[in-house]
Design brief:
Blueprint lengths: L4 H15 L6 E7 L2 E7 L10 H12 L7 H6 L10 H16 L9 H4 L14 H13 L9 H15 L4 E6 L2 E6 L7 E7 L2 E11 L2 E7 L4 E4 L2 E4 L14 E8 L2 H14 L1 H9 L5 E6 L4 E3 L7
Antiparallel strand pairs: 1-2, 2-3, 3-4, 4-7, 5-6, 7-10, 8-9, 10-11, 11-12
């Protein structure tokens, strides 16, 4: 349970910020994708729709890179042909490839060859040897093993949002372990307020943003990490080196109306660094970013809300 506590704290902080002074009419909660999720509906006139549990279970059984029973796991091992993939996995792989190209390879779904070497829950923690990492980097090109960790929660949160809208819900908050989607606005017509974690103190807020029909996603070096011989190793890996990114950033937050874009770009921009990442964001019509450096400096894109 200890390793899940930070994720639970994250979710509770974000939900506290989002839902302050608002009465939740209905909610769905559970533990999927190795994290706590919550769907809170504020629309008093529409019942909580059926199928939310099934949507989450389907996504978990489809996109997990570590579950031997999942579709992605079996696809990586040649047990399923590409033409026989489910619509969800096929779309997720296509979206992942789109953001690989957009980011110049900073977000690469073939990182699974490397990420499978890193066990963020090992006790004691262990750093893979350089020969294994080198071999995995070569295999990314010759025999790619896909890991959709940087886009899967965006895929499922978008599907959940679409399902809620199809069922007539106009006001809700979807929180998949810190991937937040504000569906519509609050019942009083005002925007939702979403909290962004302080990388130096993940149980506290760095700032908040007001959003309507937007996704807010943060990637940070504090999320899954361990320290060996005084060096911090975190889960955001550089596809060029196979090691955790070390470019002076500790978090990147993306706001976009597309939950998939917000999810993928938060990782891509973290890997790219603040200069290249900021340039990418400024070239896009529907994305804003907040970069937080190791020294606490905050760099906002031109359209990111000011404090």
């Amino acid at each position: 349970m200890k390793r899940f506590l930070p994720l639970l704290l994250t979710a509770l902080i974000l939900l506290t910020a989002c839902a302050q002074n608002e009465q939740v009419v209905q909610s769905f909660e559970g533990f999927y994708f190795d994290t706590y999720i919550s769907i809170r509906v504020y629309d008093p006139g529409v019942p909580l729709p059926d199928g939310l549990k099934e949507l989450c279970e389907e996504a978990e059984k489809t996109c997990s890179a570590t579950d031997p029973d999942s579709e992605l796991y079996r696809f990586n091992r040649g047990q399923i042909d590409e033409e026989n993939l489910s619509p969800l996995l096929s779309q997720a792989l296509a979206d992942a490839e789109q953001y690989r190209l957009l980011s110049g390879g900073a977000a690469d779904p073939a990182i699974g060859n490397v990420s499978s070497l890193w066990d963020w829950h090992a006790d004691p923690p262990h750093v893979p040897d350089s020969d294994s990492i080198h071999a995995a980097l070569l295999a990314m090109k010759s025999a790619p093993e896909y890991d959709l960790g940087y886009i899967a929660k965006g895929e499922i949160s978008k599907r959940i949002a679409e399902h809620l809208k199809e069922c007539g819900i106009r006001s809700a908050l979807i929180n998949l372990g810190g991937n937040v989607v504000a569906l519509g606005e609050k019942p009083d017509g005002s925007p939702f307020t979403v909290g962004i974690q302080d990388p130096d103190e993940p149980s506290a807020l760095l700032t908040t943003v007001d959003v309507t029909d937007k996704a807010v996603v943060t990637s940070g070096s504090y999320e899954r990490c361990f320290t060996v011989d005084g060096t911090l190793y975190h889960h955001i890996l550089d596809p060029e080196t196979g090691y955790p990114v070390n470019n002076g950033l500790c978090s990147v937050t993306i706001i976009s109306s597309d939950p998939i874009a917000a999810d993928a770009l938060s990782t891509a921009c973290f890997v790219m660094g603040k200069e290249k990442g900021l340039a990418l964001i400024e070239s896009l019509d529907d994305a804003e970013a907040l970069f937080v450096s190791d020294d606490g400096k905050q760099i906002r894109s031109s359209g990111f809300p000011q404090p």
